[in-house]
TrEMBL record:
<dbReference type="InterPro" id="IPR023346">
    <property type="entry name" value="Lysozyme-like_dom_sf"/>
</dbReference>
<feature type="transmembrane region" description="Helical">
    <location>
        <begin position="54"/>
        <end position="82"/>
    </location>
</feature>
<keyword id="KW-1133">Transmembrane helix</keyword>
<dbReference type="GO" id="GO:0008360">
    <property type="term" value="P:regulation of cell shape"/>
</dbReference>
<keyword id="KW-0133">Cell shape</keyword>
<dbReference type="Pfam" id="PF00912">
    <property type="entry name" value="Transgly"/>
</dbReference>
<dbReference type="GO" id="GO:0008658">
    <property type="term" value="F:penicillin binding"/>
</dbReference>
<comment type="similarity">
    <text>In the C-terminal section; belongs to the transpeptidase family.</text>
</comment>
<keyword id="KW-0645">Protease</keyword>
<dbReference type="InterPro" id="IPR050396">
    <property type="entry name" value="Glycosyltr_51/Transpeptidase"/>
</dbReference>
<keyword id="KW-0808">Transferase</keyword>
<keyword id="KW-0961">Cell wall biogenesis/degradation</keyword>
<keyword id="KW-0812">Transmembrane</keyword>
<dbReference type="GO" id="GO:0006508">
    <property type="term" value="P:proteolysis"/>
</dbReference>
<dbReference type="GO" id="GO:0009252">
    <property type="term" value="P:peptidoglycan biosynthetic process"/>
</dbReference>
<keyword id="KW-0378">Hydrolase</keyword>
<dbReference type="InterPro" id="IPR001460">
    <property type="entry name" value="PCN-bd_Tpept"/>
</dbReference>
Length: 902
């Protein structure tokens, strides 16, 4: 059993005491042998403990020395193994076309493939513009001439990203990027990062800084197969590298970070110009660098001048199919797998694109935009996207009328805004651009309203209406496209005819937040500031993307299911291993099946839109059930047509890239985008059924949970008497159960037309009469509805049920006794609070007919009204708030007068 030193001492002491008791005296001195033995034992234990400790330390030191030696030997071996792989600054790397990405359509037809490089030449750093060298160093590695191939700060950042879930990219110096671009695979692993570090040290020890910078500039990718500055300078600007300007140098230096995004030939050229300005900023703030004994820097004056400098790009010299879609796919792949892997990983990508559909769409857009321009529409461009609503797959994407054409007008600055910008910017993919959608957003508003229990027969009042802003002030007064007003219109007809005022009312009733939430469920990502939108949102006041609008409309076609637009079917690496394969997730429920059906039914109802578009317009495709919605922004800068069947959705836009206005006369709902949409849908539907003669005709079938009923045409409630009727679809539980309270049957006094009092009844001076009281959707709009009704039906008292009880008295002979004339203010009591804006209604009667009614604010006359119904619309500012006195004076044709007040 082991003992501690303390316990051992205690036991030895006890033993010594026992021995001392039994030993004899020696020369009168007590023997101290036990004490000596105790000391000896203790000293021996200390020596053994120290000896063991020394042995352990010796082993540790030996192991550490062995590790150091082993690491040194291993490092030497690694350096030796990798050293022969180092690139040379005096020769170009051979790149195999087999490692370029190939993009195929859904049927395996190639739409994008690189067939190797041509005319690549070595460029020495002394023949490269110092601006490009400066721009590159400022952007990629501003400490290049001070480090030894690696940046400790950058490596720590890369390690943090590695161990805490960040991106393995990052932290690379220019030297490391040379290694990455020339020797290593595109995998993102810690092992590859270590190899990169080792080889970077080797490269730094073998070559000068200028030679390493030369390697970088000759081998780095600038987009597509543009490897090296010579190829890039020629491809983008048709210049030698030595002739590049400051602005051109900054543009090229900004590309390597993400060529798929920043390239002029990508989906949005403006992003590359923004990147260029950022590089110029870095050049300005990160000081100077020295080359050939000269210091190069960017002064504040040169910085500002370079930002304003115009860049003239070369057109793409390699033709390929579906160009906007190809760049869209490349951006998706870069997000998934990294820029380097996309450009050089040998991917084989099968996409959702149907090449035949793509070519049909391209032809339609190009031909119809040219035709519209000749007709004086003043439209420079068009775009189109086609989806399969059953899967969300993109079948066609046309980002402009011709990707390979020259920008218009000649000399315009591609990607710029303001003066000198392009009416037609061929590279910009408009299907991904944020633009106002006009009235094409209205179906989402009505879908939100229907989801709250409203019915498609609900009566809207399309009359002049002023809406309040956030401060409660009535400042927004929308108008219809036609400039007129239609009065009572069902929700069905309001949406079908694309009326603006009912749409704004629908948004007010549904709630802006509710509508935005609905839009997000349907894939609209751009409504990102709910507090910043007003009621104009339902008329296109918030920007959207054409691709996302097509995805939103696919929700209606797919019975309320949303599937995000999909471009990829399968991705394989260079070895043939599958990296991604599409499978249908089933989508997410964005809308009830019943509401989706109602919207589809309305938008495919040719009669519901006939007031605005007529019967058999271009929105109608004979023999097929096709839903469609048009849209034009208020300022005529954008024109849309979006439509669908159960098996295809197509969305079309026409306009000008720089937001120039189109011809206001021709840019209507049935010109511009609509002819493109009609031609495409007609041909696509024909081809769809031709592929399978036995395929049944697909319609918008009514789902469970809806029913069709006969209703009153005016009110949408149960039929009333012999008034006009029509049929309408209802979600179960929302169908009407009563006659509308618009219809009123009253007992009135024959003499003054007011509600009969007891005197009238006793004198047998009453009769029953039917009235129609048109009621506003919300009480706050009633005054403006009443005003419109009075202007529309002023001579027909059927629409003006009496609001007050008769004040007449009769004598025993049945003749009127007492006052022969009277007037009163209707609807307000003394001391009642009134809003800042309201209509003061006046009732007046005389046995000799009323000639006029005067309305006073205090003692000031504000109007003289000579036609029934009498009243005045008061508008006060917040500063006018306070107690007011209103007076009315009536005069009949015999000159008799009477006064009333409130």
């Amino acid at each position: 059993m082991a003992y501690s030193l303390k316990r051992l001492r205690r036991r030895l002491a006890m033993s010594a005491k026992s021995v001392a008791t039994n030993l004899p005296l020696a020369n009168g001195v007590l023997a101290r042998t036990p004490r000596v033995e105790y000391a000896r034992v203790v000293n021996i234990s200390k020596k053994k403990y120290a000896s063991r400790k020394l042995v352990v330390l010796t082993y540790l030191a030996s192991a550490l020395l062995a590790c150091i030696v082993g690491f040194f030997v291993l490092s030497m071996v690694v350096f030796a193994v990798y050293s022969y792989q180092l690139p040379s600054p005096d020769k170009l790397l051979n790149r195999s076309e087999e490692l370029s990405t190939k993009i195929l359509d859904r049927n395996g037809q190639s739409i994008y493939e690189v067939f190797g490089e041509k005319n690549r030449e070595l460029v020495e750093i002394k023949t490269i513009s110092p601006y490009l060298v400066h721009a590159t160093l400022a952007t990629e590695d501003s400490d290049f001439y001070m480090h030894s191939g690696f940046s400790l700060r950058g490596m720590l950042r890369a390690m943090k990203n590695t161990f805490f879930g960040g991106d393995l990219q990052g932290g690379s110096t220019l030297t490391q990027q040379v290694i990455k671009n020339t020797l290593l695979s595109q995998e993102r692993t810690v092992t590859r990062k270590l190899k990169e570090f080792v080889l970077a040290l080797q490269l730094e020890s073998k070559y000068t800084k200028d030679e390493i910078a030369q390697m970088y500039l000759n081998e780095t990718p600038y987009g597509g197969q543009n490897y090296g500055v010579l190829t890039a300078a020629k491809a983008y600007f048709n210049k030698d590298p030595k002739d590049l300007t400051i602005a051109e140098s900054a543009y090229l230096a900004g590309l390597p970070q993400s060529p798929s995004v920043y390239s002029y030939y990508s989906s949005d050229p403006a992003k590359g110009l923004e990147r260029k300005d950022y590089v110029l900023y870095l050049m300005n703030v990160r000081g100077w660098f020295e080359q050939d004994g000269k210091r190069h820097y960017l002064s504040d004056e040169d910085y500002e001048a370079a930002k304003k400098a115009e860049l003239k790009f070369e057109r793409a010299n390699v033709s390929f199919l579906a160009p906007h879609f190809v760049f869209y796919v490349k951006e998706l792949l870069a997000e998934k797998y990294g820029e380097d892997f996309v450009e050089g990983g040998g991917l084989v990508v099968t996409t959702t694109l149907d090449l035949a559909t793509q070519q049909l769409a391209e032809n339609m857009v190009g031909e119809e935009v040219a035709k519209a321009a000749k007709q004086g529409l003043a439209v420079g461009n068009g775009a189109m996207v086609v989806l399969d609503p059953k899967t969300g797959q993109i079948l066609a994407m046309v980002g402009s009328k011709d990707y390979f054409a020259e920008p218009e007008p000649e000399g315009c600055v591609s990607g710029a805004t303001g003066p000198g910008s392009c009416v037609f910017d061929p590279n910009l993919n408009v299907t991904l651009a944020e633009r106002q959608p006009g009235s094409t957003i209205k179906p989402i508003t009505y879908a939100a309203l229907l989801s709250r229990g409203y019915i498609s027969a609900f009566p809207f009042l399309d009359v002049p209406t002023t809406f309040e802003n956030m401060a409660g002030q009535k400042v927004y007064k929308p108008e219809n496209y036609s400039g007129g007003f239609s009065g009572v219109m069902s929700l069905r007809k309001s949406l079908g005819n694309s009326l603006n005022i009912p749409a704004v009312k629908a948004l007010k009733m549904a709630g802006i937040g509710t509508m935005i939430d609905q839009a997000k469920k349907m894939g609209i990502s751009t409504f990102d500031r709910p507090e910043g939108y007003g009621l104009a949102l339902t008329l296109g006041g918030g920007e959207t993307k054409l691709l996302e609008m097509a995805g939103a409309f696919s929700v209606f076609a797919a019975n309320g299911i949303y599937r995000e637009p999909e471009a990829l079917l399968e991705v394989k690496d260079a070895k043939g291993s599958t990296m991604y394969k599409w499978s249908d997730s089933g989508g997410t429920r964005a809308l009830s099946q019943q509401v989706a059906f109602l919207i589809s039914d309305i938008l495919s109802d040719d009669g519901a839109r006939s007031e605005a578009f007529g019967f058999n317009s271009l929105l109608h495709i004979p023999g097929h059930e096709v839903a469609a919605k048009t849209g034009t922004t208020d300022d005529k800068r954008d024109n849309y047509a979006i439509g669908f069947t159960p098996f295809v959705v197509s969305a079309v836009w026409v306009g000008n890239n720089n937001n120039d206005k189109m011809n206001p006369i021709l840019a209507s709902g049935i010109t511009g985008a609509t002819p493109i949409w009609n031609r495409f849908m007609t041909q696509y539907i024909k081809d769809y059924y031709a592929k399978d003669a036995k395929r049944p005709v697909e319609k918008f079938d009514a789902p469970d949970g809806v029913k069709k009923l006969e209703v009153d045409k005016l009110t949408g409630m149960l039929p009333y008497r012999d008034y006009d009727k029509r049929v309408e679809w209802f979600v179960n539980g929302t169908e009407p159960t009563a006659v509308s309270d618009w219809y009123q049957k009253l007992e009135v006094c024959k003499v003054d037309g007011k509600i009969a009092n007891e005197a009238c009844k006793s004198a047998d001076k009453t009769k029953e009469k039917n009235y129609i009281k048109i009621q506003a959707e919300l009480p706050e709009w009633q005054d403006e509805v009443d005003k419109w009704v009075s202007e529309k039906y002023g001579g027909d008292d059927t629409y003006f049920p009496p609001s007050g009880t008769s004040k007449l008295a009769f004598d025993s002979e049945g003749n009127v006794s007492g006052g022969k004339i009277w007037t009163d203010i209707v609807g307000f009591d003394d001391g009642q609070k009134v809003p800042l804006e309201f209509r003061l209604k006046v009732d007046a009667w005389s046995e000799d007919d009323i000639e006029q009614v005067e309305i006073y604010l205090g003692d000031k006359r504000v109007t003289t009204d000579k036609s029934f119904p009498y009243g005045y619309n008061f508008v006060f500012s917040p500063e006018d708030a306070g107690e007011k006195e209103f007076k009315v004076k009536a005069k009949d044709k015999n000159g008799r007068r009477v006064e009333g007040r409130s």
